[in-house]
Amino acid sequence: MINNILKRVSNKALFLCLICLVFIKITFHFLIKIDYISLGLGGGNDSDYYDAYVLGYNDIAVNIWPVILRFFNDLGLYSRDGISYLFLFINLFIIPFLVAKLSGLNFQKNQKYYLYSVLLCLIYPTLFFYTFDIYRDVFMVLSFLVGCLIVKKCLSSSNFISFSFFYILAILIGLFLLALRPYLGYAFLLALVLWKINLTKKRIFFFAILYFFALFIANYLGFFERITDYREIFEEDMQGGSNLGLDFSNPVLFIPNFVLSTLGQLFGLYLVNPFAVLLFVIETLPALFMMTYILKNVNYADSFIRFLIIFFVLYASVWLIGNDNLGTAVRLRLYNYLAVYIAFFYILQAKLKLNGSKKRFKI
């Protein structure tokens, strides 16, 4: 059914959409950078702080990203606008094709799905927003996808030496992600340990019950205390309509609040303004559709897809508890949605390939 829906749009129409999107984004980015259009997309607390650190006005590094930027500045290779244009290039020409490659898609063999995969990445507005300045998000997404590529190579290795080499390399990438954003690296590294967990429809239901029970116990024992303390920052410093206002201090209400946080932040159902509605339609609806398909066809998941699913759960668990701001949520859920995109197309083409081989076998 899904295959029939996707086939309704011709490859030529998809390709024209890609060309138009690239042209529009390049033009829009250029007009913003030369101040022909003023929407306030560049600058902000993060990027201004990074720039101040690079130029020596601030000596406190909260993560490794400003340290990397200062390193390039010491080499005479730092340019705030130059990095912004580099991020635009990565957003348009590297990330979409990395996602397609991770999905196991080949342009010649799976042209339509390949184009759909690239289109989803190009149309994604949040990632494009972070190309307008020296935010770390585009770099982190690139690092995460490269890490996933190494994990995929590792888990598909046929001999122990090759497996060990790529596994160690994946751990190093995980440690690097840890330095960029601690809970992103933690989820990546822990998923590397737990990837052997076999997932089926029945087991997912069992694991879901076990998962909520484990969350409740962990919260009751105070394991999430540092995360909930961090959450208070949003309540104190980011007052406004974009906050959910959920209180995780009451252990009895922890699970209901966690579910509400998931609905509001991960699934974007807290529609407070027209922009939130737009993001819901463009970003969340396709992801929800894909999540449903992945759950229905989880039996087709191999070791790499299991890694992505486990990463999805572990990563979301932390930021859904630690974050209360919807604006921050759209940048945090990037990695969850990308994992969903990859898993969807990976399972879709694996299922079609298996069904095709069965038909040939019957003939």
What distinguishing features does this structure have?
mainly alpha, single chain, 363 residues, 18 helices, 0% strand, globular
Mind sketching the topology for me?
Elements: H1 2-6, H2 11-33, H3 45-54, H4 65-74, H5 80-93, H6 95-102, H7 111-123, H8 125-129, H9 137-155, H10 160-180, H11 182-194, H12 201-220, H13 225-237, H14 254-266, H15 274-296, H16 303-322, H17 326-332, H18 334-362
Describe the structure.
- The chain has 363 residues and is mostly helical.
- Helix content is 73%, strand content 0%.
- It contains 18 helices and no strands.
- α6 (95-102) runs parallel beside α9 (137-155).
- The two termini are 23 Å apart.
Structural class: mainly alpha
The overall pLDDT, averaged over residues, is 89
Assess the beta-strand content as a share of residues: under 5%
Helix/strand order, N-terminal first: HHHHHHHHHHHHHHHHHH
Give the CA-based shape: globular
> N-to-C terminal Cα separation, in Å?
23 Å
What is the radius of gyration computed over CA atoms, rounded to a whole number of angstroms?
21 Å
Estimate percent helicity: over 70%
- Quaternary state of this entry equals single chain
Residue stretches low in confidence (pLDDT < 50, at least 5 long) are none
Count of discrete alpha- or pi-helical segments spanning 4 or more residues? 18
Q: How many strand elements?
A: 0
**Largest sheet features:** none
